Every structure is written in structure tokens, then in C-alpha cells.
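FAQ: What does a ligand-bound record look like?

Like this one, built around manganese (II) ion:
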Amino acid sequence: MRNIRDFFPFLTKPAKVVITMHQKPDADAMGSSLALQHFLEKLGHSVVSISPTNWPGFLNWLPKCSQVIDFDSKRSFCEGIISDADIIFCLDFNDLSRTKGMESLLVNSKGIKVLIDHHQEPQIQAFHFGISDTGKGSTAEMVYDFMVASGNRSLIDTDIATCLYAGVMTDTGSFRFPSTTASAHLMVADLKSTGFDHFMVHEQIFDTFLENRLRFFGHVLLNRMDVNYELNTVLIAIPKNDLLKFDIKTGDTEGLVNYPLSLQGIKMAAIVIDRDEERKWSFRSKGDIDVNQFARQYFNGGGHKNASGGRSSLSLEECVLQFNKILPVLADKLKGEY
Ligand code: 5GP
Ligand code: MN
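The answer part, i.e. the structure of the complex:
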């Protein structure tokens, strides 16, 4: 993978560009992708953003989100676009397997693959150009840096600022996580100078729950939360029936895993959800507890040091047993001060 700076000359030659992101994109994946789409279109490129799967409805308000194609529901159409692309940007993931059914198409495409990402252990041989920086709190910050470093800061308008802000704000936990750097705040100051409305972004992302979703959170916190005070860990296991009963859709469980960390002394939270085809894990931690390594080693996943995910083909009950059996490997860190 060559340095992203070596890619800049390609920006000046109009090309057929595909932007893609990880499956079940979050606000950072979708916001970064749409910001880049606006930017590249201003430079005269023809751009299509493709998500490997559907995404949470609370992202639909993002400028141009209505143009994003869901690969799962338009496979043959996407196949043509991907194999015909001159350039393929891969944002907010670093391993092509995170694009699910798109993986082989991406591998076989003749397009130049460009990585912009902040996750651990990038599959660098899969990309021609790129930047991978785990020190960045969000991919949105890296897309901003890319725009500025390419000499095109003047193209950043309110739509681009809105999309980038959605990414940095959510991935830094509203500027709260230790990953929030001075440069993230400096970027936001610069974005604010375009006049975009940051209050609206928070409203659209956090204050658009439907009643069923809030009641589902209440139900889960009351009935599905297991607190282990000895190891300062919380495990939430959600059976499929709960999802059906409360009519829970893609993205409706987002944010739930963070609630247990508001308990005094709790250092790690895990949630496992019984999805149709698999059991999906999310892990969150504080301080020195590395849930990226934990997810990678035991739960077929990965992510960041303090936020990761994984998957399993075991039943929900087996997943719970497995977790409780493995958790003591972190006992020293979980029991100590941070
Ligand atoms: P979430 O729990 O919000 O789904 O994901 C937390 C972080 O872990 C995100 O950065 C996400 O990209 C990453 N992540 C979630 N699930 C997986 C997975 O199955 N594999 C890998 N490699 N990363 C994941
Ligand atoms: Mn991200």
C-alpha cells in the first residue's frame, strides 16, 4: 500500500469512483463516505456510494444518503458498477471481509483501491494507496485531512461539514473518549466556519427514537443485564423474541452497549444479540482493557482497543457460557484500578 499522498494526482483526472464502507455502516462509515462523495463530485468525478448491507434509519437525513445503494438488495446492478470502477475508496474498515458479499467483487475489480481507516491490523496488501491510523478517533477526521492535504480545503461546504461532523461526533462519543484529540477539535472549529448546524446533527442522531426503541432499552436494562461486580463487567444477552416483540430494526440496538459503562466501577460491557444468521457481539471497555484483542482472539472480530465487535455461530445460551468462561483471562486488569 503506497502513501495516500501518492494518490493525489489521480484527483485531478475525472474518473468513475465507487466509495464503500463496512457492513451495517454507522455514522462514521456513512458520514465519511458521503463527505467524500460530495467532495469528489465537486472535483468532477462520477461517484457511487455502495453499502454492503442496509443501515440504520437515523442516518437517512445525511445529505445524499438517499443515493447510497444497498448492495444486498441490488446485487447485479452493483456488480457492474464495481467491476467497471476506476477507483474504489474503502472507508472505515481495513479488511475486505467486512464488506460481506462484496469481498470477491472488490478483490477482482480492476479499480485502484484506496484505504482510509482507523482500525487495528490493516490488510495492507489489499490496497494500492491508503492511510491507516489507529491514533485517529474517526475516519471522518482522516477524510478531512485527505481533503485539506490535497489542497482542496476550499471545497468543504456545509454538506461536507455536516457529514464529517456526524462521523467525528459519534466515533468520539460526543468528544468524550480518550481518542478525542486536539486536532479533532480544530477540525470541528474549521467545519463550524462553514456555517453548518451541529445541533441538528445531534438531534437527528440521538433524539429520533421511536417509542418502541426506548421501551426496548428499558426492557433490556431491566431484564437482560447481568452485572458481574467481581470482574467489573456487564453482559447483556438479547434473545430474538425481544427483537420481534419490540419490532427492533437495523440500528435500533446502537448505543445500548454503552449504558452499562455508566455504572460506577464497571470497566467492560458486552452485548450479544441473536440475529437471524448469527449471534453478533459488541464490546466496550475503559482504560487499559483491550477489547480489540479480546474480540479478535475469541469472538471472530476486531475493532478498536476500547470498542470492538465480533460474531458467532453458537446459540445465544452457548455464547453466554463461552463469554463467562473466557472473561477471567482479563481478570487482572478488570479487578484492578484504571
Ligand atoms: P459495534 O459494536 O458498534 O458494532 O462496533 C464497534 C467497533 O468494532 C467498530 O469500529 C466496528 O467497525 C468494529 N467491529 C464490529 N464488529 C466487528 C467484526 O465482526 N469484525 C471486526 N473486525 N470489527 C468489528
Ligand atoms: Mn469509525
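Follow-up question: can I read anything off the structure? Yes, for example: The chain has two domains: 2-206, 211-335.
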